[in-house]
Design goal:
The chain is α+β, with helices and mostly antiparallel strands. The protein has six helices and six strands; from the N terminus they run αβββααβαββαα. A six-stranded antiparallel β-sheet has the order 3-2-1-6-5-4.
């Protein structure tokens, strides 16, 4: 968040929902939602497999401001508080109650072709300028590589743990590779 602000993207909140739909493959969780706010708050919510909760179905996404980037392959959408689209999405109304007035949803194309979504929101009108998308795009491309590495690393750890056990997997993945 602070890095984006330093690049002139004046935001108050970022949310990154990781799920099976966007490329997360985890043995315990079908979704992990990370939210950062400018006041330093960080919140992580887990949707686990045990509780029977599943990744957000497309029907749920159809009512979400992520819809256009997640289901319709848009790269970038913006909703301002006084635009007609704002009232179409219950989540934006909830954000409005928290003081947010401008919202961006963007897609991040991962190297394997999966599309990850991210949202940014601000509490101040005019903080997202006309060139916000142009500023954001190269930063999201860089984030794609990092996010893909996280996804691949998690998959590698889970595979290694499943096939060679947690203790040996940890040692092997920390570089202790050798015969015997």
């Amino acid at each position: 968040g602070r890095a984006l602000i330093s690049q002139g993207i004046l935001l108050d909140r970022i949310q990154l929902p990781l799920s099976q739909l966007f490329g997360l493959h985890h043995p315990f969780y079908v979704g992990i939602v990370t939210t950062w706010t400018v006041d330093g708050q960080r919140k992580v919510m887990f949707r686990d497999r045990v509780s029977g909760r599943k990744a957000p179905p497309k029907a749920v996404l159809a009512k979400s401001p992520y819809r256009k980037v997640a289901l319709e392959n848009a790269d970038f959408v913006r909703f301002e508080k006084y635009s007609p689209e704002w009232d179409e999405y219950p989540r934006l109304k909830e954000l409005e109650e928290e003081g947010y007035v401008d919202y961006i949803a963007a897609s991040i194309l991962l190297p394997d072709g999966a599309r990850q979504v991210v949202s940014l929101a601000t509490k101040k009108r005019g903080h997202f300028s006309q060139d916000t998308e142009a500023k954001l795009r190269p930063l999201l491309e860089a984030a794609a590589a990092a996010l893909f590495a996280v996804y691949q690393n998690q998959s590698l750890r889970e595979i290694a743990t499943a096939y060679i056990g947690p203790i040996t997997a940890r040692r092997v993945l920390n570089g202790q590779i050798g015969l015997g």
